[in-house]
Write a structure and sequence with these properties.
Radius of gyration: 24 Å
Distance between the termini: 46 Å
Oligomer: single chain
Helix content: 25-40%
Largest sheet: 5 strands, antiparallel
Number of strands: 27
Shape: globular
Structural class: alpha+beta
Length: about 600
């Protein structure tokens, strides 16, 4: 067998960028922290981004719960089988943060053998191959409800899970795949869960791992675990969350969003907690968080991009000011199944016209104060990378209101008396579009960000000047994500049109930025139900090919055919970090790693 990576090996992804950090500035410690003055503390106050309220700690993903603050907290409690992150300047495997010791692909590429580290759960029970298989059994039987699912990908692409001994797992694939994709985007999805304690279907039940080997039993286990995950008020004190593999345990959880993690004293891995207690503090607005930063109530938090011009005042308070760049894309999915506007959005010329009305360069520079970059397609553009096509780099739909109006008028739309385009009586505006249909869109956007508010105010003005009506509604991020599940046209919940959940970037990729989870037909995170057989084929090719050509073709097709409305990609956050803290290198995948934070001595 040939080794792909071992516990000390790396598979580098050259595309992830180095993060720019401000020079350390001496000053009084933020938040009353003694770290900057040299006296270590036992806890840290971390201010979550505004309206980013944790609402899921179960290491089984369901739709609407994939926000990065949730996944980061989960990773601190439950280590994945394979861990990747971008905190080292490139997106690589970080073997000290996962449960695997060695990963070896067979010569024919049809199987992989994973040897586990010698590790234990927090109750002292060894982590074994049975815990990996338990995860597979539960997820495979409930894949339609698993938010990371796409037909043909994990777990469909695994035809057998063998456990020859307690420390070895052998996965057999249905065909040969790109190993970079398997490592960075498939094996990273596996989060071993404690079979000896979680193979139950009711409170106080007797664990039975054999139950998960039947579809009915695995579904009953899934239903129980998901229901426990949805009971936010019951997290604190729930014995399920007492058994973890990560560097932290759950100390406290409020359904208002305040979370406390405490050091896992039984942790026997290599990514141990540097600070015993981390308090995660929620804020309902950017202004409230900014006030907390200025008053020194937090040790690590965020400020609006508009404050970049005032970085010196935060440095004087003892903070470092750091742009957190992301390996991400930002977009608004069209609801192609919306009963009224779906047929309109299904017309490529309409999507082309709307894309021509998004002044990405102006928005990035003026609204986001340079802390956003234009994005024209499905592959992250910053920094430049081997996966990008020339078509995406060059922006096939530059800001051009006259071109937008020409596209609409060429296809049967005329300006109404109210200045909004209407499908002219007798015109063929496209299948399913009725005479008199108005081109008036509704955007549901996440609240809590001045930059986001200003961006949509600017877009509303531009769109309406060009003849497109715009209604903007706002809600907290969790509400937006919970309101936009893929739906059928006749469903009551299918009334949403264009949601924005990208104040800190809409989608953060694993090491390999393929799009099957968000653009593939039937994918759980394909919110707008976009479906294009040619795009599906290109995505499938990108998962099999060993060169970069397939990804470049996928990049070009997505840029030209507009499965979503492409938007400027903001930095994940502008961080303010107490200058007495170490281990705070930003992860371009959008995760934070609290166990690596430590007060300098």
């Amino acid at each position: 067998m040939r080794s792909a990576t071992t516990a000390r090996g790396r598979v580098g992804i050259a595309a992830a960028g180095l993060l720019a950090t401000a020079a350390l500035v001496a000053g009084c410690a933020a938040g009353g922290a003694d770290g900057a003055s040299g006296e270590p503390k036992d806890e840290l106050n971390y201010a979550l981004p505004a309206n980013a309220t944790p609402n899921w700690l179960m290491p089984l993903a369901i739709s609407g719960k994939l926000a990065t603050h949730n996944s980061s907290l989960i990773r601190a409690l439950y280590e994945p089988l394979i861990a990747y992150d971008g905190s080292m300047g490139t997106v690589d495997r970080v073997p000290t943060a996962d449960l695997a010791d060695a990963v070896e692909f067979s010569e024919d590429g049809l199987s992989v053998t994973i040897t586990l580290d010698e590790r234990t759960w927090s109750d002292g029970t060894p982590v074994t191959s049975a815990d990996v298989k338990f995860w597979f059994d539960v997820v495979a039987a409930n894949k339609e409800d698993w938010a990371s699912y796409r037909v043909g990908a994990m777990p469909d692409n695994v035809t057998a899970v063998e456990t020859p001994d307690e420390s070895t797992v052998v996965l057999t694939f249905d065909q040969v795949y790109n190993q970079e994709w398997l490592l960075a985007s498939q094996l990273t999805l596996i989060v071993p869960i404690p079979a000896h304690a979680w193979a139950i279907t009711e409170d106080g039940g007797e664990p039975d791992t054999a139950l998960a080997e039947t579809p009915e039993g695995a579904q009953a286990i899934w239903d129980y675990l998901i229901a426990e995950g949805e009971d936010l008020a019951g997290y604190e004190g729930n014995p399920l969350f007492d058994i973890v593999s990560g560097p932290y345990t759950l100390g406290a959880f409020s359904d208002s969003g305040r979370v406390t993690l405490t050091e896992n004293d039984a942790y026997d891995g290599e990514d141990a907690a540097g600070i015993p207690t981390i308090n995660f503090l929620p804020f309902t607005s950017g202004d409230a968080e900014l006030a907390a930063v200025r008053s020194g109530e937090v040790d690590y938090g965020y400020i609006p991009t508009s404050e970049l011009d005032n970085a010196a005042q935060y440095e004087d308070l003892g903070y470092d000011v750091v742009n957190w760049d992301g390996w991400s894309i930002t977009y608004m999915p069209y609801n192609f199944n919306n009963p009224e506007m779906g047929p309109v959005y299904q017309q490529l010329y309409v999507r082309q016209a709307l894309q021509h009305l998004v002044d990405q360069e102006q928005i990035s520079e003026v609204v986001w104060h340079g802390a956003a970059n234009p994005g024209y397609g499905p592959v992250p553009q910053n920094p430049d990378n081997k996966f990008l096509s020339d078509e995406q780099r060059e922006n096939p739909y530059p800001f051009d209101p006259e071109a937008a109006q020409a596209l609409l008028e060429e296809n049967g739309w005329t300006l109404g008396s109210d200045g909004i385009y209407v499908c002219e009586t007798g015109a063929d505006c496209g299948e399913g579009i009725a005479d008199g249909q108005k081109l008036a869109i509704t955007i549901l956007t996440q609240s809590g960000s001045t930059e986001t508010d200003n961006m949509f105010a600017e877009m509303k003005s531009t769109f309406e000047e060009a003849g497109v009506g715009v209604t903007i509604e706002s809600a907290p991020l969790n509400t937006v994500l919970g309101s936009i599940a893929p739906c059928e046209p006749d469903a009551a919940e299918c009334t949403w049109e264009l949601p924005f959940f990208g104040t800190a970037g809409s989608w953060y990729f694993g090491g390999y930025p393929s799009g099957e989870r968000i653009f593939g037909t039937g994918a759980a995170s394909n919110f707008g139900s976009y479906s294009d057989p040619e795009f599906d084929a290109l995505m499938a090719d990108s998962l099999r090919a060993d060169d970069d050509t397939a990804m470049q073709e996928y990049s070009a097709y997505g840029a030209i055919n507009l499965p979503v409305m492409w938007m400027p990609n903001p930095v994940y956050q502008v961080s303010v970090i107490d200058s007495g803290l170490t281990g705070t290198d930003q992860d371009s995948l959008g995760n934070f790693h609290p166990q690596r934070w430590a007060w300098s001595e």
